[in-house]
Design goal:
- With about 325 residues, the chain is α/β, with parallel strands linked by helices.
- The chain has a single domain (about 30-330), classed as Bacterial extracellular solute-binding protein, family 7 (D-Maltodextrin-Binding Protein, domain 2).
- Helix content is about 45%, strand content about 20%.
- It is built from 14 helices and 9 strands.
- Strands 1, 2, 3, 4, 5, 6, 7, 8 and 9 form a 9-stranded mixed sheet that branches.
- Strand 5 (about 170-175), helix 7 (about 180-185) and strand 6 form a beta-alpha-beta unit.
């Protein structure tokens, strides 16, 4: 082997070694953001604003590509890609994080935990929530932004639900996570996990009899075309957590990390107002589409849902005293 070739190989190996240990990305950073929601929904509007702010503040050195309507696959598929190191971001919640190895996180998706958004923000700003994010980060997932309003989740069905007993045996689509499966199971329903993209056809073919989600998601999915009864049970107050993989996040410079996080927080502060207004307007849109709006005695649903807090599928995995600690934080007496 010639001396020149040997020298070139040494230089190449040196560069490869440096690349393996350097934490910061020096050139153009391209990020894919994938989500189940359709164009025009508040989640999509947030992503458009987030993209604008990131690209503007990074002076074009960071770019974001948006993939709505499940174009990148299911939430769990995307999270697997994150852990593998891909430069991809998606939205998730405590119920998914629990199934990923941080079981206490699922309480944030327990039915009727939050009475107001202030209750939710108090918990998510607490030391307890930081502890959960730290645990998740050790498993390869980094929560970037948590201050977004996804909406209050209600239930749309093919036959009316006016009381808890009306849910008995009904096949209700839920996301594929333990907490939400338990949440409808204790009400007597038959929770049926399905990707959101399959719900319309499943309702149309009567594979399922209902779906739960915030009003804007239900309306934009056009599920009201095949299910004409909307029960305002308000079982979950759902924030939005935007999450990336720690491998990708740690590869960014501190400046890039700050741009990504700060821009997301700011975009949510703008879009949250839009999200709440859109959810309010959705009621009239449902009425105009011939959907029957059903007001229920929420206290009856709350009492039935208490079983979700003691069900061994979730409670057996919780830290002892978790419920008391979380309720104390929400009440303003703990942290």
């Amino acid at each position: 082997m010639s001396k020149v070739l040997k020298a070139m190989m040494v230089c190449l190996l040196t560069l490869v070694s440096l690349a393996a240990v350097l934490p910061a990305r020096a050139g153009q950073v391209e990020i894919r953001v994938g989500y189940e929601n359709h164009p025009g929904e508040p989640v999509d509007l947030f992503c458009i604003e987030w993209k604008r702010l990131v690209e503007e503040r990074s002076k074009g050195t960071m770019s974001i590509q948006l993939f709505p309507s499940s174009q990148l696959g299911s939430k769990n598929d995307i999270m697997d890609q994150m852990i593998a190191g891909d430069s991809v971001i998606t939205l998730a919640d405590g119920a998914f994080f629990a199934d990923r190895g941080v079981p206490d996180y699922s309480i944030t998706f327990a039915p009727y935990l939050f009475a107001t958004w202030d209750d939710a923000w108090r918990l998510f700003a607490s030391d307890w929530h930081k502890e959960q994010m730290d645990k998740l980060e050790k498993l390869g997932l980094k929560v970037l932004v948590w201050n977004g309003i996804y909406g209050v989740r209600h239930t749309l069905t093919t036959r009316p639900v006016r009381r808890v007993d009306d849910l008995k045996g009904m096949k209700i689509r839920v996301p594929n996570n333990t907490m939400q499966i338990v949440g409808f199971d204790v009400l007597g329903a038959t929770p049926t996990p399905l990707p959101l993209g399959e719900v319309y056809t499943a309702l149309q073919q009567r594979v399922i009899e209902g779906v739960e989600n915030p009003l804007t998601v239900l309306y934009n999915g056009k599920f009201h075309e095949v299910a004409k009864f909307l029960t305002l049970d308000g079982h979950i107050r759902n924030n939005v957590n935007w999450v990336s993989g720690t491998i990708f996040f740690n590869s960014l410079t501190p400046e890039q990390q700050n741009i990504l996080i700060d821009s997301g927080v700011e975009a949510n502060e703008t879009i949250n107002i839009v999200a709440e207004k859109a959810n309010e307007d959705a009621i009239q849109l449902f009425k105009d589409a011939g959907v029957e709006i059903i007001e229920v005695d929420v206290t009856e649903f709350q009492k039935a849902a208490i079983g979700a807090y003691t069900d061994p599928r979730v409670a057996a995995r919780w830290t002892p005293g978790l419920g008391d600690r979380v309720r104390g934080i929400i009440a303003g007496t703990g942290k």
